[in-house]
Amino acid sequence: MAATPTQRLLRLLPTQSLPRVVPPSSRSSSSTDHVNHALSVSGLMAANAHLGASSTRQHANMLRFVHGVRGGVSVLNLDATLAALRRACAVAAAVAPTNIVFVGTRRAIHRIAADAALASGAAFVTKWVGGSLTNKERVLKRSVRFDPDRVTQLQTDDKDVLDRQPRVKLPDLVILLDMNNNLHAVREANQLNIPIIAITDSDCDPNLVQYPIPANDDSLSSVGLIAGLLSKAISDGAAIRSARPPRAPRSDRDARSNSESSNSSNNYNNNKRASPRDQPPRDQSGSKSQRAPKQQSTEASTASAPKPSSTVASTSE
């Protein structure tokens, strides 16, 4: 009986990297244990994150992330995937809770992108419109349909709201769940210097994004696992940021900095006035001795000048 492609791939990988089967009675129900298990080589392999695309479509820049080829399928190095995933989670936690958007335009991962965004308070996009970042005002004005007749009790001072241009904030981080389907988003984000976290399969170019995660982007379990970990990192980062004491308003901070700078300048001037080299020296008895002023007169200078010799006059006579 011929072996299946999955069995052939499992033979290629070492035994210690295979996921360990845990009995249901010993499994922990805590979310922390689940995240720790998922953020490991065994968790990634259980989600089929190591299976890449066909070797005939392998990108040259992905060679450093490829463990080998078996049965015409590229096998990704899960150690590199784990390191890249941890780095991406740290970046997502540091950026949170600012504007973060999940992009998943393939129909099969629409639900994954929506769930990850809703769980972390981020935004999500299931269909990318060209110019959403580089020409955001025009795209929003064309896509948003606002009916002013439905607005009731509109005050006189607020009538200019209808004529204002819509304002949209650019995202601080873009997370791509299917990179090859959103190359327009990659170009626009790079043009505006917006960092990108992307799942890069073996047929993707990792040099186009700042934080590539080499993993299988065709498997729903792999994409769902990575999206869930990034969503959890964003939630944790937002919780840590909210637990910190709030910063003072900018006006108070400016006033405090101005007062501190004035105090430091006053202290510097006082120390400069009381410097030891500006004080008169002391004699052996401890009392201050006053220096005699220098008297330089023209008379003293002429008196001290040498007289001309009389030998010249005697010779002339």
What is the name of the CATH class of the domain at 36-144 and 167-239?
A: Alpha Beta
Question: Looking at the structure, what is the overall shape?
Answer: elongated
Give the averaged pLDDT, no decimals: 74
Fraction in beta strands: 5-15%
- The whole-angstrom Rg is 37 Å
Query: What is the CATH H-level superfamily of the domain at 36-144 and 167-239?
Result: Glucose-6-phosphate isomerase like protein, domain 1
Oligomer: single chain
Helical content (DSSP H or I, runs of 4+): 40-55%
Main sheet overview? 5 strands, parallel
The run of helices and strands is HHHEEEHEHEHEHEEHHHH
Beginning-to-end CA distance, first to last residue: 143 Å
Task: Give the neighbour order of strands across the main sheet.
Answer: 5-4-6-7-8
Find the CATH topology of the domain at 36-144 and 167-239.
Rossmann fold
User: Helices and strands: which structural class?
Assistant: alpha/beta
CATH architecture of the domain at 36-144 and 167-239: 3-Layer(aba) Sandwich
* Total helical elements: 11
Low-confidence stretches: 12-31, 146-159, 310-317
Instruction: Give the strand tally.
Output: 8
Organism: Rhizoclosmatium globosum
Keywords: Ribonucleoprotein, Ribosomal protein
GO molecular function, one term: structural constituent of ribosome
GO biological process, one term: translation
